[in-house]
Design a protein that fits this description.
By secondary structure, the protein is α+β, with helices and mostly antiparallel strands. It has twelve helices and 15 strands. The strands form three sheets. Strands 6-9-10-15-14-13-12-11 form an eight-stranded mixed sheet, sandwiched between helices. Strand 2 and strand 3 form a beta hairpin. Helix 3 crosses helix 5. The longest helix is centred in the N-terminal third of the chain and has 23 residues. It is elongated. Bound molecules: 4-amino-1,4-dioxobutan-2-aminium adenosine-5'-monophosphate and magnesium ion. The site of 4-amino-1,4-dioxobutan-2-aminium adenosine-5'-monophosphate has 24 residues, from strand 10, strand 14, strand 15 and helix 12.
Length: 462
């Protein structure tokens, strides 16, 4: 089926005698002697105007070209006399591929709420807003790959099924082939998972980091970009049970290098999307967040701020703000604190580093003070935590000591400890929640609206 995309048709160098376009009818308006169809095929935000003269044989089909119907149009691409469009199509042929009943098709011309559109996630890619969001999603992914390639990182694939808990937070989805309700094996010295597929506890991954640490010890610099699963029962606008994470990891790199990479990557992807998704970003700037473009340009214009966790706690205590959760050295920062630091204090992204070890994962490198670790979080306006990472503990004795303190099962991590036994090196990395990046890029405030089919507690439709 030879067809020209609407994006290409609108960007044509000149008129074209014969062209075929396909798409979905956004609106149709009937005038005396002809009809106007606004056609969209997803290749661009803009619609292509099609003029169907009542003189063409297919005009008897026009009453079925309702909002939502799919059509194929052949005809001539001509310069448009109308304002705001370069070209339009004068139809010679019109074929209705699939009708959409105006009584039951839910997307009519009016604006629908995000809440309503979430209930019809299978139809919302056909709206301007969600079409734009998912085009930006695609382009942002490409921009990330481009950045890492330029910086000499290899793209690697870490497993989705895993036997270890990277974050040690226990918020994992169990995977089993045992029948529902089947008891685990019992008895002295019996493996409780003996009857299960892997013969041991299996989960969906919460992070590919541990495997990435193995990969860099041969490849130097790697990154993964894939689905990640967390069974935290937190019903917030920033958490999903299934989300995508970008995780770079570097050998011979300290926390300073890590911060530079996080800032360079974020700026590159923002710039990439501004360059390649102009009209889509403008839509968000116009209808979703009128400060969006200004904010993104400001992000590019200055270095990210940097404050240690101890400084951040002082700043928060001195802020005079009535936070819902009080802060003291040792407490985890809440979203309200993270937002204050980036929105009001720094007025730009801020990197907080050197957190107390108690509130961070076991693998982070212990500082000389014995109580903080070389952790870093990148906090951004409106969202809070965009990136979490650290310099890793590369010293075998220090790592083992920390794992013992936390009561971890060393047998499960034998291979991970091997990495410190054989040719260990200082190394660092981080994870960025891809959906949080998309919220930053679009001004969308709910993570459910940047995921095509969001999975959150109680929601697994589609
Ligand atoms: O801070 P987190 O938990 O860090 C890690 O998992 C590290 N192992 C990553 C690494 O160093 N390689 O998660 C990283 C990022 C967060 O900063 C956040 O942006 C995102 O992942 N994230 C979520 N995004 C959406 N829904 C959730 N439930 C998320 N949990 C974390
Ligand atoms: Mg984190």
């Amino acid at each position: 089926m030879k067809r020209t995309s609407i994006k290409d048709a609108l960007a044509s160098a000149g008129p074209v005698k014969e062209i075929t376009v396909c798409g979905w009818v956004r609106t149709r308006r009937d005038a005396k002697g002809f009809s106007f169809i606004e056609l969209n095929d997803g290749s661009t935000l803009k619609n292509l105007q099609v003029i169907v003269d009542e003189g063409i044989p297919a005009y008897n089909q026009i009453k079925n070209a309702n909002t939502g119907a799919s059509v194929r149009v052949s005809g001539a691409l001509v310069e448009s006399p109308g304002k705001g469009q370069t070209f339009e199509v004068r139809a010679a042929g019109l074929e209705i591929l699939g009708e959409a009943d105006p009584e039951t098709f839910p997307l009519q011309k009016k604006r629908h709420s995000d809440e309503f559109l979430r209930t019809i996630a299978h139809l919302r890619p056909r709206t301007n807003k969600y079409g734009a969001a998912f085009r930006i999603r695609s382009e942002a992914a490409f921009g990330l790959h481009e950045y890492f390639r330029k910086e000499g990182f290899y793209y690697v694939h870490t497993p989705i099924l895993t036997g270890s808990d990277c974050e040690g937070a226990g918020a994992m989805f169990r995977v089993t082939t045992l029948p529902q309700g089947a008891p685990l094996a019992e008895g002295e010295g019996v493996n409780p998972y003996a009857g299960d597929f892997f013969g041991r506890e299996a989960n969906l991954t919460v992070s590919g980091q541990l495997e990435l640490e193995a990969m860099i010890m041969g490849l130097g610099r790697v990154y993964s970009f894939g689905p990640t699963f967390r069974a935290e029962n937190s019903n917030t606008p920033r958490h999903a049970a299934e989300f995508w994470m970008v995780e770079p990891e570097m050998a011979f790199a300290d926390l300073e290098d890590n911060m530079e990479l996080a800032e360079g990557m974020t700026k590159h992807v923002v710039e990439h999307v501004l360059t390649h998704c102009g009209p889509d970003v403008e839509l968000f700037n116009k209808y979703v967040d009128t400060g969006l473009l200004e904010g993104l340009k400001a992000l590019l214009g200055r270095p990210f701020a940097r404050v240690s966790y101890a400084e951040a706690v002082d700043i928060l205590k001195r802020s005079g703000k009535a936070f819902e959760y009080p802060v003291e050295f040792g407490t985890d920062l809440q979203t309200e604190h993270e937002r204050y630091l980036s929105e009001e204090y720094a007025k730009r992204p801020v990197i907080v580093y050197d957190y107390p070890k108690e509130i961070k994962a076991f693998y982070m490198r212990l500082n000389a003070d014995g109580r903080t670790v070389r952790a870093m979080d990148v906090l951004v306006p409106r969202i809070g935590e965009l990136i979490g990472g650290s310099q890793r503990e590369e010293r075998l004795d220090a790592l083992e000591a920390r794992m013992r303190e936390l009561g971890q099962n060393m047998d499960n991590y034998a291979w991970y400890l091997d990495l410190r036994r054989f040719g260990t090196v200082p190394h660092s990395g981080f994870g960025m929640g891809f959906e949080r990046l998309l919220m930053l890029l679009t001004g969308i405030t709910n993570i459910r609206d940047v995921l095509p089919f969001p999975r959150t507690p109680g929601n697994l439709e589609f």
